[in-house]
## 1
Amino acid sequence: MATTEERPLFSFGIIADVQYGDLDDAMNFTQTKKRYYRNALYLLREAVQHWKEENRIQFVLQLGDIIDGFNTRRKNSENALQAVLKEFQGVPFGLHHIWGNHEFYNFSRSYLMKSPLFTGPESQDIASNLKEVVKKEADAVYYDFSPYNGYRFVILDNYDISMCGIGRDKDSPQYKKAGEILRQMNKNEELNSPDGLFGVDRRFVLFNGGMGEEQLQWLRETLEVARQRGEKVVISGHVPVHPNSCYVMCLLWNYQDVLNILQDFSDVVLAYFSGHDHGGGYHFDSGNEIHHVTLPGVIEVPPGSNAFGTVDVFSDRLVMHGVGQLESRVMK
Ligand SMILES: Nc1ncnc2c1ncn2[C@@H]1O[C@H](COP(=O)(O)OP(=O)(O)O)[C@@H](O)[C@H]1O
């Protein structure tokens, strides 16, 4: 029989960039990787089946871009969303859906707030309270929860300051702020192009975003409370925040602000999980003992493989069991 040392305190599932669409396979923008839009749904199904059979995860962190932006061309966004949500129907674990750039190519924030992709703590109230939805519409969607005594999970809204798709209203201060940042840093007419930008500056493209001061302050306060309670914290967002954990073009615009906060609270922060960069990545910030995990994107996994995992949480380590392209690792 397993001793308490051998058994995880609790476990959770991770998956990123499913980007499902009823679309033919096609190459990415740079013509370097194929995207398997229809197969992505089967890979999601396989992941859910795997978690059901394992029978030990408490919740899944779905790290964003669950359907592809190209669904809008066929006016098929809602059908695509229904298809992926159907895979989660009746699952015996919780779900935390993070919003990425592709959510905003398909849907406005107010639509998302009322959809099952909103998994914030007030999701129950909001579905039945339209006034609350209107009030919340302008807000960023970030929240925290404690799945187990002594542990806290933080969900960030990396597209708080953004011009992606129809997410933010064009008149909103967040959209205007995003425009100021982008146009100052990126002189291309096509704002998704990083031409003329070098190194980490290549992150100043339209498909990325940033976090506002209010959210950064909330993150500091949340980590301060966690510190006082003696909790350990796992943070997640769609977009990576460490330049060594991803291709730099995929970094959060103000990644340094977030890194500074994580480093200030390195005594409580264990890891940062993200998606967005389909190639995936990993970096151990050894000075601060924080693990940065960027999951490979399901959309670019050929049939026959997959990219998801189960993380077992022990008192002294996180053990990530990767399936397919997600590498397994022990994170002390
Ligand atoms: N180097 C680039 N120059 C111009 N546009 C680009 C470039 N790379 C990507 N894009 C555009 O940016 C958008 C997002 O790129 P994409 O690779 O599809 O993102 P994701 O990885 O999130 O699916 C697409 O509209 C794509 O055409």
## 2
Amino acid sequence: MELADYQRYGRQMILDGFGLEGQLKLQKSSVVVIGAGGLGCPALQYLASAGFGKIGIVDHDIVELSNLQRQVLHNEDTLGIPKAESAAIALRRINSRLNLDIVTEALTPQNALDILKPYSIVLDCTDNAPTRYLLSDTCVVLNLPLVSGAAQKFEGQLCVYNATPTTPCYRCLFPIPPAPETMGSCSETGILGAVTGVIGNLQALEAIKLATGLYQSGEKPTMLIFNALSPTLFRTVKLRSRKEDCIACGVEGKRVGSIKDTDYVQFCGGPAPDWIERGMVSGISGTRATAAELNEAIQKGQAVTVVDVRPRTEFGICALPGSMNVPIKELVADPSSHLPANGDVYVVCRLGNDSQIGADALRSVAGNGSTIKDVVGGLRAWSQKVDGKFPVY
Ligand SMILES: Nc1ncnc2c1ncn2[C@@H]1O[C@H](COP(=O)(O)OP(=O)(O)OP(=O)(O)O)[C@@H](O)[C@H]1O
Ligand SMILES: [Zn+2]
């Protein structure tokens, strides 16, 4: 250890049970953080400060203004650059000698084993079910502890999977994925920045304990539940131990098929609307269009009807020129009376969820040969990909 490191890490080295030995263990440990967003930023900040020997940062997204409310490593100067790079710039300000490995691609079934393999601890700081299952399965195969965090609205959860031979994996607890409509992203459901800060910091803490030998798995594994609005803030629930018949971590022979051959997105009910835009899944089916494709159709002068299914108040805030407003409830209640008479129909909403329901409803009453598509990513995608002056709210 370098002389200056005694000074840098002295405050934690004098702790009983930590000592020089703990610091050297941290130096030999490596941790990889998947997602440099609301959870990943605070986690990375404390992991980097504590003295891990190597830190991986994996995120395919770029920094946006709406991230700065909670993703504390990013700032106005790093808007538009990959989050993994932006986080690395901030961490190097804490310690210029950090050994960082940056990946600016999404973690996928094809690359997950290779990306996670060099590390001793994995942090799940992502926000979607397919990645949670992918991370869990990969950690089971590589026998790595997985410190998993989640946060939404005023609430958060923390759980360490796969830490000992008896601790469960994510699939042991959730063999069936949650319904996609219950898994809204922060932009749909809202999130208080300090809530992600609480959970992200706790993820860093668990990783530091795992690396230094301070981690104690209780008699029964537990999940921590945080509710910012409850007077007591925290409670823990006891979890079942590893499930013998779990298809991922159960007795040999029952392991989930090869990770590379598993379609995690389909398993979790198909892609979320913004994933195609964000490069997490490729390809787009014939019943869907990107914002750019809608723009192309309009520019070419094709006969196009845009049906905007947002509530009237939101339509009043901003709308595409010439679009017609049919709030989703009214459309679903009586699709045939709202079916445009001619032209290709593009159904749009704010983020791309209701528009899929609206397009389905119109298709159910339309004749064969009519073209009815939903716009992936909604008006937010329109603003990002087509018209930067279109308001995002
Ligand atoms: N498979 C994946 N590989 C790498 N990073 C991922 C993956 N899935 C999600 N992430 C990242 O996890 C982070 C989650 O953080 P968070 O939800 O705070 O951010 P966000 O997606 O930017 O938020 P918002 O929903 O407001 O747009 C994001 O930066 C996202 O890019
Ligand atoms: Zn399991």
